[in-house]
């Protein structure tokens, strides 16, 4: 075992590649597991912690529990076979045998946008049982600025009896990743690190240096704000795109054409995002609340962010309104209609429904009591769709509905574009897969 706290970044990177550094990655889910396996690929010995013993057993057999992460399955099998990576449910034991502890567990928010740190506190408490002098702890969960020092640090110090910044290092490195693109983004985007002191920052920079460029920030809280600022920027930008979409519809203008033209060769000063049926996933709908809550703490006005959240959350209601208008244009009453959702994931080519627009559309559609609300998604089984509240059908059956809503343009739908073109007069395209669709978010028939 090598104590990395106090060592220069280049030396830490060298030791990791040599195989002298053991990393305990707490939280090997959709984000953490690819990161853990990538550390093992670069030379570290890695222990991944997860509470589900069935998933842990699968991982230790080299079987990937992830869907939609390219080339991951082969890499997992290789590092497990080589003895470079193993999974466990024993977090305390994993911490004791490691030099570096990376915490990457979910931070939840309630319906009012208030943070729930319970999972973070449990992870930190378990990790604290194995911290020794010279170790380094890195929080990688995206959290409000100040959370590592205010929430995690006291738990680590109480459980270990040691002092952060004196006995062990403490740093933050936000995961700048996306579901389905974790391994690509891990090497593509510069890693950001910031520590409680310079020695923590240096050691963390050395750990993440194996993936490429590292940006060292001046403080831990600065590093925390980076990812939150990135995600909130995207929420604001999408909110503007959705505003444009709703404005263009009554004007008879195609918002997608406007956005494409505005963005054309103007990357320096214009980068309007895409409209949608709503903002989903575990990141973008959540991060603005971190800043809204922090703004309240320090007495700043967060009206802009609240309004953006309202606009983006309201897009599922707007999509339902388009469904009703489409049905009415065909003299079809909602209560007599079959409505199909194509793709229920929050984004194309992934299996994830956290904050997905599809679930909100289902909720609002039910208020109008259509005959049936069907769904087809190649990533979800019939049982899973049924448990979510949909009537599961095949792709061909879904296309026969009185109105179809394209929510996530999975590759299967891209390949079946001709079939979607055939129903373009009763399809609500929220993704612009069909540029000539009669109905889509951002352009509708104007009478």
Comma- or semicolon-separated keywords:
2 domains; 447 residues; alpha/beta; Rossmann fold; six-stranded parallel beta sheet; 16 strands; elongated
Which class of the largest domain in CATH terms? Alpha Beta
Q: What is the name of the CATH superfamily of the largest domain?
A: NAD(P)-binding Rossmann-like Domain
How can the largest sheet be summarized?
Answer: 8 strands, mixed
Strand content is 5-15%
Q: For the record, give the distance between the C-alpha atoms at the N and C termini, rounded to a whole number.
A: 73 Å
- Report the helical percentage: 40-55%
Looking at the structure, the CATH topology of the largest domain is Rossmann fold
Basic shape: elongated
Counted beta strands: 16
- Count up the helices: 18
- The total number of structural domains is 2
Q: Any low-confidence stretches, pLDDT <50, length ≥5?
A: none
Radius of gyration computed on alpha carbons = 24 Å
